[in-house]
Amino acid sequence: TARNPQEADVAEALKKLALLSGTLEIEPSLQEAAEALFDALPLAQVSVRCFADNVEDHDNYSAGMPAPASADDDTVLGIRSDLVRYAAHGRLGPVLFSARDGDFGDLESAALVRARMDKNSWTHGLFAPIGVDREVMGYIVLLREEAQAEFDPDEVQALHEAGRELGRVVRDVRLRRTER
Fold first, then answer.
1. Per residue in 57-80, is it b (16+ CB within 10 Å) or e — as a string?
2. Which residues fall within 8 angstroms of residue 63, CB to CB, at 6 or more apart?
3. What is the distance between the alpha carbons of residues 127 and 152, in angstroms, rounded to a whole number?
4. pLDDT digit string (tens) for 47-86?
5. Beta strands 95-98; 61-65: pairing state
């Protein structure tokens, strides 16, 4: 079965993420992931964020395309809280949201997310947790503008896979750090 060019680009992006597994540093891996996803999909912005090892430590690693990830601490903590709450209830997949029709589901961080979207003229987005099993280590957020299409089921599934793949990368980097 022939794939359309976007499906091929997404498949290539997922391969790039899988190849990051031998890396020793988180931040360059996040930047490569952001670039791969931005190149593969029609997006206004992609941001990738990894939370620090320790919940008490508020230093996060982040990357973005075309602009660096720039969410303020309250927004990051709100999104983290939502994703951890979802994971605790077995909801481990991507979360779609839309400023266009005001649909933020049950995101408790909705007001913070909406404010950022309005400020940047983004109309719809998708969060995917970065993690392994139910451990949320960070998130990927894809954002689109009015002229760009809604996310289709294949894109949602691809982002789910990207979050799991980055979860393995982050876990492996952390394990190698402890071994050093």
1. eeebbbbbbeeebebeeebbbbbb
2. 27, 30, 31, 33, 34, 47, 48, 69
3. 14
4. 999 998 764 444 678 999 999 999 999 999 999 999 999 9
5. unpaired
